[in-house]
Amino acid sequence: MEEQKAPEATYYPPGWDNNPSSWHQRLPIVGLALIGLLIASYLGAFQLDLITAVWEPFFGNGTREVLTSGVSTILPIPDGVLGALAYLVDAVTGVIGGRDRWRTMPWIVIIFGIAVGPLGAVSITLVIFQPVLFDSWCTLCLCSALISILMIGPAMDEFLASLQYLKRVSKHGDSVWQAFLGQKNPNYDHQSASLEVN
Amino acid sequence: MWAQIISALLGLWLMAAPDLVSGYSQAANTNNRIFGPLIVAFSIVSVWEVTRSARFVNTILGTWLLAACFLLDYQGAALVSNGLTGLLVLGLSFVKGKHNPMRFGGGWISLWNEEKWRQGQPHRLVKQRPGRTAAGDEQIATTTD
């Protein structure tokens, strides 16, 4: 296909000097999500009593106390399992779509951006709960929280590119809904340049 | 970028300090354990150029740390630690570093500000890359500048 021969620059959003949907930018986020998935699955397995011991190098009984606390079991499924599900959504929505998905699949980019945000917010809330409510820390929980925060920045540039694209669609009087769903995604690059100048 | 990384480390210090330094009351301890993680989080998010503006949350958090020196019971070393950390976090939140929204089509503000939107449009970029749009090239060449 000629698509594979096209230089990366043809996938840049208008007015950008980089492509936020390039694999170069997306794969590290997917990698982080997969590490997060592993950690959260391990913690979730302990909470579901699938494994009886849990690794904790620094804080003695900390991980056990945090993972068996009232907060972690406030929902029908343990928070570790929920975290694993969230990382899975991040990894899947991070990997779907091609190098120009900011334009061709805004819906998946926006789900991806929305999935990354709350995961980070919940992680930080849980980090605050550890010492404040239970007076203990959990090493792997802290690692998981760090990963979820690291993912936010790099995910947001693609999110911005998709929102700018939808605004461009709207300015051209085309259907934002169809563009959002990836049904009709015109490439306005050269047109908008001349439109703006006129 | 460096300012935000240092700021994240300061947040980490806030989390650890009650175990390493004396002079924390219960309230001061809790305050550290709430605001430490928040400062770490917003600092890390603002390391990336596209989300650099998250540093302004640290402006608020740093100001609160300074206010907490007077409002909560910090003593001796804890008071010094908290005051200095607050001052540094506040100061670092004003360090913009390398941040050019024009790398991102005008940035977030272009979504609602028409002036920024226009500035973010790729007049020059398109001209520098002819051949990508066979039909549009001629038109652009005559209308830009």
Supply database-style keywords.
heterodimer, A: 198 residues, mainly alpha, elongated, disordered C terminus, B: 145 residues, 2 domains, 0% strand
Structure explained in plain terms:
- The complex is a heterodimer of chains A (198) and B (145).
- By secondary structure, chain A is mainly alpha-helical.
- Helix content of chain A is 67%, strand content 0%.
- Chain A has ten helices and no strands.
- In chain A, helix 2 packs antiparallel against helix 4, helix 2 packs antiparallel against helix 7 and helix 4 runs antiparallel to helix 6.
- The longest helix of chain A has 29 residues.
- The C terminus of chain A is likely disordered.
- Chain B is an all-alpha fold.
- The longest helix of chain B has 20 residues.
How would you sum up this structure in a few lines?
Chain A has 198 residues and is an all-alpha fold.
| Overall number of strands of chain A | 0
Residue windows where pLDDT falls under 50 for at least 5 positions of chain A: 191-198
Show the largest interface.
Answer: A-B, 39 and 42 residues
Number of helices of chain A: 10
Instruction: Calculate Rg of chain A over CA atoms.
Output: 21 Å
- Strand percentage of chain B: under 5%
Number of strands of chain B: 0
What is the arithmetic mean of pLDDT of chain B? 84
What portion of residues of chain B is helical? 55-70%
C-alpha Rg of chain B (nearest Å): 22 Å
Bin the strand percentage of chain A: under 5%
For the report, how would you describe the main beta sheet of chain B? none
Instruction: Give the helix proportion of chain A (percent range).
Output: 55-70%
Give, in order, the helices and strands of chain A: HHHHHHHHHH
Number of helices of chain B: 7
**Which class do the helix and strand fractions of chain B yield?**
mainly alpha
Oligomer: heterodimer
Main sheet summary of chain A: none
